[in-house]
């Protein structure tokens, strides 16, 4: 078992292996980026008994997704958490460690390809490891040759994906954004409006409903911006900008939101600067605004809006 060099192009003749534990942890370099293991054509870095499931992440040659288009496959091996810890110890490399909450704080700007690999591997984890039975009949549903689970009676069991919508709410002129504080958070933590799509809704109906339920504001227009895999546990985030009338009264109909505040670009940049200067803590600091981490698509939505403002 060997390690791949850090931050170098993959050798297409040496398979790259990504280890993912049952709890979703992996091997990380000391800068927080993915650490791949390398093998050869006849040997994998884990024994057959230690492998819970396998998957292959292939380059996105059918599109222009640069994050997955390095030209080399990544072989994902799923294992128990104890196995991952043992592999990290066996490497005996002080610059490599088993992660703890590795995906939530991934340095996406330093390693977008690794972040894409990690998200894909986590999104497939539940299906490959835990979804072994039909939710309807209770029959065992082993994986077939094409990677789809099927029961003995012929029922196909597909991966479960949970679509959720997210809104960057803007004023009519687009010069302010509305951020919300959930009652379960510290009062200084603000993020975007989000929620799961209900059965029978299309995406535009879902985003308008979520905005109304959490703020009492009516959507004047919606504009799709981006999507992202967020494997906690199996969400697909579909993100919109939603324009509202800022003069409407804010009402938190569903009780989830403690407060919602309007921010100009200048106010948001100042708040971000203060937050970065003071760092994160468990103490409530009224002078500091905590925003979603840079790995979250919510932060990408905020940063995209800020980049448009002088």
Please tell me the overall pLDDT.
87
Give the % helix.
10-25%
Strand content: 25-35%
Largest sheet: 6 strands, mixed
Give the CATH superfamily of the largest domain: Nucleoside Triphosphate Pyrophosphohydrolase
Radius of gyration: 22 Å
Shape: globular
Given helix and strand content, the structural type is: alpha+beta
Low-pLDDT ranges: 7-11
User: How many individual domains?
Assistant: 2
Features:
310 residues; alpha+beta; Nucleoside Triphosphate Pyrophosphohydrolase; 2 domains; five-stranded mixed sheet
Describe this protein's structure.
With 310 residues, the protein is of the alpha+beta class. It folds into two domains: 16-61 and 69-156, Nucleoside Triphosphate Pyrophosphohydrolase; 162-308, Nucleoside Triphosphate Pyrophosphohydrolase, CATH 3.90.79. It is 22% helix and 26% strand. The chain is built from five helices and 15 strands. It has helices spanning 81-91, 112-129, 203-215, 265-278, 297-307, and strands at residues 2-3, 16-21, 27-29, 37-38, 53-57, 74-79, 96-98, 149-150, 156-157, 162-170, 176-182, 193-196, 219-230, 235-244, 257-264. The strands form four sheets. Strands 10, 11, 12, 13, 14 and 15 form a six-stranded mixed sheet that branches. The longest helix is centred in the middle third of the chain and has 18 residues, at 112-129.
